[in-house]
Design a protein that fits this description.
Elements: H1 12-20, E1 29-39, E2 48-57, E3 65-70, E4 81-88, E5 91-92, E6 95-99, E7 109-115, E8 123-130, E9 145-147, E10 150-154, E11 161-162, E12 167-174, E13 184-187, E14 194-199, H2 201-204, E15 207-211, E16 214-216, E17 225-230, H3 237-255, E18 264-271, E19 279-282, E20 285-291, H4 303-315, H5 326-343, H6 349-364, H7 373-379, H8 384-387, H9 389-408, H10 415-427, H11 434-445, H12 448-458, E21 474-483, E22 486-495, H13 501-505
Parallel strand pairs: 1-12, 17-18, 18-20
Antiparallel strand pairs: 1-2, 2-8, 3-7, 3-11, 4-5, 4-8, 6-7, 9-10, 10-15, 12-14, 13-15, 16-17, 19-20, 21-22
The protein binds zinc ion.
Amino acid sequence: MRTLKPARVLGGASLALLLAGVCAQAFAADRFSTTLKPIRAGQAEVSAIAVTARLEAADGQPLMLQAPIIYPGAWRVADRIQGMSVLDAQGPVPLEAKDDAPQPGGFPYYRRWTPTRAVTYPVTIQYTAAVQPVGDRNGPPFGIRPAAGGVSGLGAGFMVMPQSSQPADLSLTWDLSDLAPGSVAATSYAIGDAKLKGPISTIAQSWYLAGPAGRYPATGEGHGFTGFWLGTSPFDPAKELAYSAKLYAYLAKAFGYLGPEPEYRVFMRFLDTPPVGGGTAQPKSFMLSRASAPFDPKAEGPRETLAHEMIHQWTGGVAAPDGVSSWFSEGLTTFYTALLPMRGGFTTVDAYTTEINRIASGYQGSTAANWTAAKIAEHGFGSEDIRHVPYLRSALYFADIDARVRAKTKGKRKLDDVLAPMFVSREKGVRFDHAAWKAMVVKELGPQAAVEFEDRILEGKPWTPVADAYGPCFTRVAKTYQVEGRAVAGYAWQRVASVPDKTCQRW
Ligand SMILES: [Zn+2]
């Protein structure tokens, strides 16, 4: 949720958690079936999505429908719901609308509709959701927006949802009859029509894209990595997605523990009008939203962002307070976003040199370099520079641990080996928290490692990584940083010219 720029702000998981709190009432739907019809009404661009949903549940349960008044990056969703009608066996169901009290800080709050009489299930809910208007407030690309005769956005950016947290049979049917022939549709959870079992929030938290979209690979069921795009981009989307697909396969192998290639979808939209948004990850998927631009054969796609978002899928999270937990989720992702593409031959050693120095200077050059993790978390989204300190500080921390584990075991073990059993156990539901992390590093490096974690990561005390934190290819050299006009003594990484690139790539 970046107000924000490309996507590395919030992993999808943390945003999903943030938004999950809104549905507290215990309503159990049995089945929720949705049909989506993007509407062009004779125009070149999509103006709305017509939605027909059928909700089946045991009779006697109170129906409540909701749509966001404010959602990050998609303000006034509820105001764009037009002509809503609810029908049951007795006919039209009269509704009463009530707005939640506004939440400070741009956090989501909702309009809620409740029937003024008892309903008999199933009920049918029909409405038209208008696209987000030109010039609306910028933010994550959650609002539905038109591009190139198609439409895309997040479910929560246009859908009226029953308040239900229980798993239900969910189905999605697309009606593409008002779009150009050959149009396709996809979501975070499927290509085309879909059936699945899960909480209704799965639908709200999914990306949607429909229209005469480009697609990578051009055909197939969409197992593993797939990508879709709408609009004109300066770079070649098919080429960038082909690159990302190869990297994805490499990452799946490098981490290993989630099986050969978990499903993952990348959506890209290139918009002719603002708000353009940025990039945001949701479970199993990522949306990149940019302004449309003429094709430039020299332009490269946002490869680092794509790598970062995909890597999140494997690095996952630690059980810790919101914000504080980013030392692990973002720090480890930043560490591997630099390392793995280089190790796999996807980026050069020169690019890696630039990246590890960006990490070092971003951390040491920040006013928040020595803030506690809790203070940085409280600061929230106030400053991009401050918010990124845990990303960078922890990336260095992981590099330091990696080098020391290798040194101690004479190269037999590295950070990957320290993490691997935890990844597997966490996947099976074993809690991974700060105590578990300290136990892991203490086992490798001795009792001092627990104190170091507290000092360096949670307390933000100054420290210096070992001189060979990035292996034999780099050495630590002194460098002075300017922080708010003050000279601060620090370090940078210098390539050791005598060590060949091949050695670096084997690190
Ligand atoms: Zn991230």
